[in-house]
Amino acid sequence: MTRRDRTTGLPLPRRGLRRRARASDGGFLASRAARFAVVGVAVAALLLVAGLLVFNWFDQSVARPRKVVLRVGAEEFTLSYYAARLPGFSRAGGGASGLLLTQELLGQLEREGLAAALAAERGVVPAEADVLEAIAASLGVAWSAGRDSPFDARYRQELRDSGMGDADYRRRAAARETARLLLESVRAETPARGELLRLRVVALASEEAARAVLERVAAGEDIGAIAQVESTDDASRQVDGILRSPPALLAAPLREALAAAAEGELLGPLEADGRFWVARLDGREADAPYTEVQIDELAALRLEEALAAARDRIPVERDFTTDDASWAIDEATGS
C-alpha cells in the first residue's frame, strides 16, 4: 500500500474509467455543436432566401417602377409612367412591336419633354382646368366637378378601359394639350404670305421611267398630259401636274435643284420621298398668299425645327435598359 492508501483507506479511481468519461463528454459536446451548426446553416439559408425574395419584391414593385428612365431638362419620366403609356401607344402605333416599339415610345416621351420646355419658354403651359376641359372634349361630354356628373362617370369608365391611373392619364392629356397650344403659338407667328413656286411635276416609281418621261417632254410632249396618266403624285396629277408650293414645303432634293433653276427649265430625275421626279419651273412669286393648309404645314415644319434646336441645347438623359423594356412590356400586358 502507498502512503495515500494507508492514510485514507479509499481506493484510487481507475484511470481508464476517467478517460472513457472524458471521451463520452467530448462526443456529446461535439454532437451538440454539429447539431447547432446544421441549424445555424439552415437558418442562414432561410434568411438568405427571405432576403432575396424581399429584395426582388422591392426591386420589382418599388425601386424599378420609380426608376427615372428619361430626363429632359427638368422633366422626369419614370418606368411606371412609361409602362402606363405603352398599351395606348402600341394601339395607336404604325405596326411596331417589341423592343422597337419601346424605343419609339421613348422617342415620343422625349419629344413631349422638349415640347413642355418650349411651351414654358413661350408661356403657353396649359392650366389644370384646360387639361380637364380637353379630357372632357375628347370624351364627348362637358366638364363638371360633380362626382355623379356625366363627366365623372365617363372619365371613370375611360380609366378602366385604358388601364391607366388618374395621374398618368392627366399627364398624358397635359402633354397633348401642351402640343396643341405650342403648335397654335408657332402658327400664329407663321407668315400668311411669301415666296411661292409654280411647277409642273411628274412623279414616277423608277429612275428609268423618269428618264423616259424627261426625254418625251424634251422632245415636245405635253408634261401636263403625261402627269394626268402616269404621275404617282395624286394631288398634282388631278390638275395636270400643277404644283404651287412654298419652297420650304418641297422635299430637299427638289428644293435644292429649283433654287438656282431658271424659269421654264426642266429638271430630273430627282429622287425624293421614294420616287423619281421630273419637274419644270413655270414661275416664281415673291409675295403670294398661302392657303390655310400650307400655313398649317409651314407651322408644323417650324415646330419641328424648334424642337430640333431645343434638343441641341436642352439636356436629355436616357437610362433605359433591355431589362426595363421587358419589365414595361410584362407590366403592360399583365404577364
Task: Provide an overview of this structure.
The protein has about 325 residues and is an alpha+beta fold. The protein has 3 domains: about 20-60; about 65-190 and about 305-335, Triger factor/SurA peptide-binding fold (Orthogonal Bundle); about 195-290, Chitinase A, domain 3 (Roll). It has helices at about 5-10, 15-65, 80-90, 100-120, 130-140, 150-160, 165-190, 205-220, 225-230, 235, 250-260, 290-315, 320-335, and strands at about 70, 75-80, 195-205, 240-245, 265-270, 275-290, 315-320. The strands form 2 sheets. It has a 4-stranded antiparallel β-sheet. Strand 1 (about 70) and strand 2 form a beta hairpin. Helix 5 (about 130-140) crosses helix 7 (about 165-190). The radius of gyration is 39 Å and the shape is elongated.
CATH top level label of the largest domain:
Mainly Alpha
Give the amount of beta strand, in percent: 5-15%
Main sheet strand line-up: 4-3-6-5
- Secondary-structure-derived class: alpha+beta
Topology (elements, then pairings):
Layout: H1 3-8, H2 15-66, E1 68-72, E2 75-78, H3 79-92, H4 98-122, H5 128-139, H6 150-162, H7 166-188, E3 193-204, H8 207-218, H9 223-230, H10 234-237, E4 242-245, H11 252-259, E5 266-272, E6 275-289, H12 292-313, E7 316-318, H13 322-333
Antiparallel strand pairs: 1-2, 1-7, 3-4, 3-6, 5-6
Short summary of the structure?
Helix content is 63%, strand content 15%. With 335 residues, it is α+β, with helices and mostly antiparallel strands. The protein has three domains: 37 residues; 151 residues, Triger factor/SurA peptide-binding fold; 96 residues, Chitinase A, domain 3 (Roll).
